[in-house]
Structures are given as C-alpha cells and as structure tokens.
Amino acid sequence: VSTQSTGHLWQFGYCPVVHYPKKTDKPLYKNLCKQLEMMDIQFLEQLPSKEEIEKQYLVILDGIFGFSFKGDIRPPFDSIIQSLKEVKVPIVSIDIPSGWDVENGNVSGKGLEPHMLVSLTAPKKSAKLFSGKHYLGGRFVPQSLAQKYSLNLPKYPSNKQCLTLL
Question: Helix or strand or coil: residue 18?
Fold first, then answer.
C-alpha cells in the first residue's frame, strides 16, 4: 500500500495495514512511515497467507511501484505480486498496476491485473490496456499545464474529486 494513501484512508476512518517489505533510508519514506506509526497504523513484515488475506481484508490497495517502474519484477516483490494475483480480495491499483510498463502495460504478464484502477492527475498511456473499472482522481492540473502537454482532461462536476472513466 502507498504510505500517502494509507494516511488518507486512516483520516477517513478506515483501518489500513501496510506491508512494507523493503524499507529504505530515504528521508521522505522514513518520515512518512514515522507519521503512520504515530497514527498507530500496523506494519507487516511478512505478507499474510492467501487464507488470512481473504479472511481479514476487504480490499487490497496496490501502491507497490509507481509509474516509473521499468524492467523485471525483482525479489521480494515478484513473490508478493504472485501471491496477490492468487487472492480473491479485490485489488485497487493507484495510477498504474504494479509490474506494468507505463506505456505498454503488462508486457511480461507478471504484473497485477487489478479489479480497479485509480489514475491520478491523468491516465497513463497503458491505462488504455486496462479492462476493469477505471477512475480519475485529482483535479489539480492547472490549465496552462494541461495545454502545454495537450492533456484532454474531463471537467469535474461541482465538488467531485474523482470521475468514472470508460
């Protein structure tokens, strides 16, 4: 799960749990983890078994890799993704499913195939290859930036923060 998303879920009254198998010494991530620890959010060293996941969790939020992911899925993430592909709990991926190439999709066939994709700011090119439910969140792109990059972003009605995409 994404550390930033975890904090937001907690603020909305959910009880997220984080599986963070490969910690980093980068200050940004250390600070985000410290913030979550101060919220008493549980961190798991090991991914629970398929049976435990299906019994204890309603949804899995996939934030393993960002949209800059390239190359092969390396340990320990290869076995984590393989395990998640076997559970029946719905998976929601943030921005791009983990293991996917940002432009070409799940070229290796080893990436996640989530039930839902939530694109942030704008859908990535590989989102065209996604067949599940697709939402767009983040209405914070200035008009000048949208014009500069020829982004064809939908208009958000009223105070909506996300839209369903077809």
Answer: strand
